[in-house]
Write a structure and sequence with these properties.
Elements (H helix, E strand, L loop, with lengths): L13 H13 L34 H4 L63 H9 L24
């Protein structure tokens, strides 16, 4: 049987204290940490979020875009799979970047509309997701979260 060593000394090293405090600060507020009979917190509005999905090979637009516009549209084939969420989403369709060409590599301009060029002078601008993160992101833990499974061809660009 392994012997357990308890340290009953009253001193706590500064380093141990700082490590424990840092770990505690990184944790989210847990429901168990609030008093059981405390008044409920005032209802807060759910932060707005922006989601953009880019698929290098694209989607078949008639299966994605709803035919009708407005709040009470009939979900398309693809959107019918998330019909329970549609009341909380705004679907933007019909956007076009006629100055953007270059095939699959031009997907880097999907959120900026910057004209794509294959030469070295191509300079993108701030993308809509980063613009929104700058103005709305302070309401969430991470102002912006860009994920990719296809390497480093990100459509998300900051001002720098």
């Amino acid at each position: 049987m392994k012997k357990v060593n308890f340290n009953f000394s009253k001193s706590l090293s500064r380093r141990t204290f700082l490590k424990g405090t840092g770990a505690a600060m990184a944790l989210p507020m847990l429901e168990a940490m609030t008093p059981a009979f405390a008044a409920p917190a005032a209802a807060t509005q759910t932060p707005r979020r922006f989601v953009s999905v880019s698929l290098a090979l694209g989607l078949h637009a008639p299966n994605l875009d709803p035919v009708e516009s407005g709040r009470n549209y009939t979900p398309s084939l693809y959107l019918s799979h998330i019909k329970d969420l549609l009341g909380d989403l705004t679907i933007v369709t019909g956007s076009s970047h006629p100055q953007v060409s270059g095939g699959h590599k031009a997907s880097g301009s999907i959120l900026t509309g910057a004209p794509y060029s294959r030469n070295a002078v191509f300079k993108n601008t701030i993308s809509i997701d980063q613009y929104l993160a700058k103005h709305l992101g302070h309401h969430t833990r991470f102002p912006s979260l860009v994920l990719s499974i296809s390497g480093n061809n990100s459509p998300s660009y900051t001002e720098t």
